[in-house]
Structures are given as structure tokens and as C-alpha cells.
Amino acid sequence: MERQIYVNGAFVAEADAKIPVMDRGFLFGDGIYEVTAVLEGHLIDNDLHLARFERSLGEIGIPMPLPLDEIRKVQRELAKRNAMTDGTIYLQVTRGAEERNFVASEGLKPNFIAFTQPKKLLGTAAQENGIKVAVAADPRWERRDVKTVMLLGQVLAKKAAKAAGFDDVWLFQDGYITEGASSTAFIVTHEGTIRTRPNSHAILPGCTRRAVLALVEREGLALDERAFTVAEAQGAAEAFLTSASSLVTPVVRIGDHTVDDGRPGPVTRKLQEIYVEMARTCETL
Ligand code: PDD
Asked: Would you say the pTM of this structure is higher than 0.90?
């Protein structure tokens, strides 16, 4: 079955899904995206993702292409047409298409597309054994809290990490880890305290981060929302990352340092377990 894609109000076969060459997302990276995971037919943390989508669009002055409830319907219809049970639903809105000009005209009509990507989220080698992350200087602009499609920094950092034998990469600035190239970075100290950087313009406010921190609070685990250095991460008792598409994933190597004994630790295991438990209570498609 050919994948069905949503393009500006219509569901079409992938081969027929078209966006103009003059689209500002294509020419300037002038657009916003969002990714929601689907696990066993449950749409995880979707309210958080849609709220961030609306906020990101507002931050760069692109109008919402549809009311939130209509966007929800698009997600559901797409999932149904593509028989999605596990994977992600991607949304993207660009400022629109017109003659190439840095300054966009007022009142452009945004282009809105959405598609599904099937992906096994649970029981993967990454989930079971943990992953190795490289460390690299954060090459991105100053408004990383906005989820723009301008992802070249992340693309190149991940490519270099893969070429060096790592699974992914954590980025740093002024000696402190900002976040993963497409995830939020966490460590657990030898005292058992979970540490992650507070939200600011330096990082994307992760929806999975927010959901995990709610679980941390519910469980009464120790939390310190404070940035940590590369050396602190490498010397931590545990490390993990979160994102819609990777849930809670253990990190067992950071650059040339093995994290503790190189195996996912108990706090990470507990958070993996209770996050999935929570996900299974999220709305069904
Ligand atoms: N990325 N930080 C960055 C830079 C990200 O790109 C992402 C997500 C996150 C985690 O956010 P969330 O928990 O809301 O998914 C943090 C998505 C998955 C992507 O680009 O595919």
C-alpha cells in the first residue's frame, strides 16, 4: 500500500504529494515541525506536542494553518489511512511560497503537510542495551527553543558521530551539555539525583522531558534541573536521553568514556518502564 500524505487539506498518495519549489521551507528553512509518537495505537503526549507546535509557529510569526482540533483530525485520519500502530506522525508548516526574497510578503498562505513513519519503538537494541553518543560543539543558532526545520547543524553533527562509530551525539556549549541533536540529555549522579538542563532558549523544551519530569515528581525521585558539563556526564552513574521517537533511551558511552559499567542503570530502567506504562494510558487512535 502506498503511503498517504496530507498536503494542504487533501490526503494523497505519496507520489502525488507536491509542494512548490518556491516554498520558503525549502529555500530558507522558514518553517516549523512537530513529531508525535504512536505506541501500540496510543498517541503519546500529543497535547504537549500540539501546544509546542502552536508556540513555535507563533514565535516566528506563521499563522496556525488549521485550528488545533482540525490538526488532531488530520493526525487521526492519516494514522487510519496508513494503518499506523507504532511510529511517528510528522507535522510541518512553512511560511508559504512566493518569489525568493529574504523578507516574506504579508499574508502568505502557509503550506501544511503531514505524514506517518512506521518505527519499532520498544524492544530495540537501543532501548535494551543503550547507545553510544559522541560529544560535539553545538553549532546551532540562539533560538533552539523553536522547533524549526532548519536542521543542518543537527544533520552534520549526527553524520560526523555516525562516521566515528557512535549512535548519536550530545552537543555542548561553554563546556555544558545543551541537549542531544534530536533529544533531551539527562544524567543520574552517584547520589541518585537526576539532572537535566532547565528550559531556556538554549534547548528545545522536550515534551518527553516534561512527561518524564512529571513521573519523576510522582515517584518522589531526586531531581536537579541544572546544566551539567561534559566531564560530569562522563563521570555520572547513569545517562539517558528522551524524545518522542526514542522514548527513554539509555546512554552507555559518552565520547571516549564508558558510563559506569557500560550497562543501563536502575533509575533509567525504572523511567523507561513507567514512561511506557504512562504512554499506554494515552489517547488511542
Ligand atoms: N526531535 N531536542 C531536540 C533538538 C529535538 O529535535 C528533540 C526532538 C528533542 C526532544 O523533544 P520531544 O521529547 O518533544 O520529542 C529535544 C524530534 C523527535 C525529531 O526531530 O525527530
From this structure: yes
